Amino acid sequence: MQNTIKANAGSTVPRSSGSLLNFVKKHYFLYLMLAPALILTLIFKYGPMYGAIIAFKDFSPIKGILGSEWVGLYNFNKFLSSPNFEVIFMNTLKLSFFGLILSFPVPILLALMLNQVRKSAIKKNIQLFLYAPNFISVVVVVGMLFIFLSPTGPINQLLTWATGEPVMFMSRPEYFRWIYILSDIWTSAGWASIIYVAALANVDPELHNAANLDGANLLQRIRHIDLPTIRPIMAIVFILAAGGIMSIGFEKAYLMQTATNLPTSEIIPTYVYKIGLQSGDYAYSAAVGLFNSLINVVLLITVNFIVKKLNEGDGLY
Length: 317
Fold this sequence. Notes:
Elements: E1 4-6, E2 12-14, H1 17-26, H2 28-46, E3 57-60, H3 64-67, E4 68-70, H4 74-80, H5 85-103, H6 105-114, H7 120-131, H8 138-148, H9 154-163, H10 173-192, H11 194-200, H12 205-213, H13 218-243, H14 250-256, H15 262-265, H16 268-278, H17 282-310
Antiparallel strand pairs: 1-2, 3-4
């Protein structure tokens, strides 16, 4: 008797190699549709992984990757023992951690508030206003920050009128993280709320009507109806965000850097760019980037394990 397993679509996929080949032949058109995405993934995602071995070599462009001398963990030890390691690592961790903690709840709150708007026209206008910042270029966003927060900008004009002196927001290290995180929330929170709005749209209105008849107020309905609906999505989004906690966007941090705010604005991605592309030390920069990726993988596995324990087994995998 042929052994089979159930596929997600409801069909049966054979276990034996011969039956599997027949199954592929029968559904060949579906595999042809999958082929372009699979080929692109192999070429652009897995193919470049070959170049990661330069992190373990004294790489020379003349000798090439295979011809360069193998140095093992030398480049990793060089980074871990460098005087800049602690500052750069902590800057990256703090910026990512505080960004995650402050930005994660905002899309959820926006979605819950949008779900209470009953008039479709008003709701669409609000959504358009919230989603629009996501389509503004990072370069434009940083340019706006420099304009509005400059010593002669509108915000400093108000502060000068109130206190008598301007505040050098873009030059002071202590303001960098707040400006980065708050501007990031402004540009991304509305767009990130789409997935929660879509999930809340599937909530049966009869549940809210029944809760109203039972005397439940708005907060009680949100707590017992809306939040349980989006809880699995919240878990997945949080795991993915925590897994990429060290993967801060390079462009925005680099554009916001000034000579005076480097003590807090120098992070691993900007350091890799400067060491690798500007200084030409490709092996060392590859080692730093690989070190960053390994931390992300460890965080992803750890956070997923913790969330599954706290969320009744619901996690990323």
